[in-house]
Write a structure and sequence with these properties.
- By secondary structure, the chain is of the alpha+beta class.
- Helices cover 50% and strands 12% of the residues.
- The protein is rod-shaped and about 75 Å long.
- The relative contact order is 0.09.
């Protein structure tokens, strides 16, 4: 029997003795570990695909005709002023590499 103990990114593998006291078959342990790692790779591939879709979606933000503006009066503002603030925010996030 193989016991996989996962704590964060650390992985410990224990080969446990059989009920009759004999050592567990290392080929069985290897096959189990191989299946586990194959499933982990599949899961990571799916996560990577989802992250690539998010990155692709963020490249759609392309505001034009923006006047750089980082402050506004919340009690007296216009749609155009808020659009400039939003456009400035998007440009800043692109500059920092948070979105592309």
């Amino acid at each position: 029997m193989v016991n996989l103990v996962s704590d964060s990114l650390d992985m410990n593998v224990e080969v446990v003795t059989a009920q009759d006291g004999a050592n567990a078959d290392p080929l069985v342990a290897t096959a189990y570990l191989e299946d586990y790692l194959t499933q982990m790779l599949t899961d990571l591939t799916e996560i990577n695909t989802a992250l690539e879709a998010i990155v692709a979606a963020t490249s759609a933000y392309t505001p034009t005709n923006v006047t750089e503006l980082r402050a506004y009066d919340a009690n007296a503002t216009s749609v155009a002023e808020l659009a400039d603030v939003l456009g400035t925010l998007i440009a800043d996030l692109k500059t920092k590499g948070i979105i592309s």
